[in-house]
């Protein structure tokens, strides 16, 4: 599932590709991906344009010139592609937004969604989400306050969107490894020094992942050399049985609350 770095990569790349371009057509192949009637959705978009693009947690928020927003959540297996009909991957699309000769294709939205909202409605939906880990005002002191709100283990807490926004399976494991902490450690057991290591690890891993385009390797457009480059840099995620880059021991895979979890039992404690 795309997480904070993947959605931030989409935000940065799409902003220069689609903002300000007039929407010339819309196709809806799967009405269940929407929250409104397809005819209304098409009517609201055609002739309009996107004037801003934000990210909140694992969502993208497309701001329309008319004041409404589209809220995208790709969920499991969703991705996007921008290009011409000739360049489009041989995959079924659920929604297509056209900008003349180039189009934005939404692929794999059978679990995800693209919903039309008034901005105030979207803000209410996001109110239940936890703080953004990379927000400038999210200091170590604020992080400590959040840590006090839960008593579960690191893995379960980090992927809880009401605890912190945007972190999922991949980056929870990468953050714990960077910090040298076992994902099974309970939050109340962390010393202040370990809390600080976790805070530094969280910011460092997420910023590095954004720099290298996240771990999902489907290109956004032909010639895209950024998207998915972090996959090769993952230290533990999906590396079961491989040697730990820090100590050489074999990496472990287990399940924590029905989620796969990767770590080094030797150098994480």
TrEMBL record:
Reactions listed under catalytic activity: Hydrolysis of DNA containing ring-opened 7-methylguanine residues, releasing 2,6-diamino-4-hydroxy-5-(N-methyl)formamidopyrimidine
Domain Formamidopyrimidine-DNA glycosylase catalytic: 2-100
Signal peptide bounds: none
Keyword DNA repair: yes
Pfam families for this protein: Fapy_DNA_glyco, H2TH
Keyword Nucleotide-binding tagged: no
Similarity-based family: Belongs to the FPG family.
This protein's name: DNA-formamidopyrimidine glycosylase
Source organism of this protein record: Paenibacillus marchantiophytorum
């Amino acid at each position: 599932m795309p997480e904070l770095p993947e959605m931030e990569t989409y935000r940065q790349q799409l902003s220069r590709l689609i903002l300000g371009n007039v929407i010339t057509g819309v196709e809806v192949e799967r009405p269940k991906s929407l929250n409104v009637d397809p005819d209304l959705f098409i009517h609201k978009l055609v002739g309009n344009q996107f004037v801003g693009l934000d990210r909140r947690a694992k969502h993208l928020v497309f701001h329309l010139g008319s004041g409404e927003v589209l809220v995208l959540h790709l969920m499991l297996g969703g991705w996007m592609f921008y290009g011409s009909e000739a360049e489009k991957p041989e995959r079924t699309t659920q929604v297509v937004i056209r900008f003349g000769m180039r189009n934005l294709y939404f692929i794999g939205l059978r679990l995800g969604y693209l919903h039309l909202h008034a901005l105030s409605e979207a803000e209410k939906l996001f109110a239940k989400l936890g703080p953004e880990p990379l927000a400038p005002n999210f200091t170590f002191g604020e992080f400590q306050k959040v840590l006090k709100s839960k008593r579960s283990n690191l893995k379960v807490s980090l992927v809880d969107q009401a605890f912190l926004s945007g972190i999922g399976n991949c980056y929870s494991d990468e953050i714990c490894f960077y910090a040298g902490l076992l994902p099974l450690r309970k939050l109340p057991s962390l010393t202040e020094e370990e809390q600080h290591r976790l805070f530094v690890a969280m910011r460092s891993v997420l910023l590095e992942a954004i720099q290298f385009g996240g771990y999902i390797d489907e290109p956004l457009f032909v010639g895209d050399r950024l998207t998915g480059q972090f996959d090769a840099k993952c230290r533990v995620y999906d590396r079961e049985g491989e040697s730990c880059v820090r100590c050489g021991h074999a990496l472990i895979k287990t399940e924590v609350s029905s989620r796969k979890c990767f770590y080094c039992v030797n150098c994480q404690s």
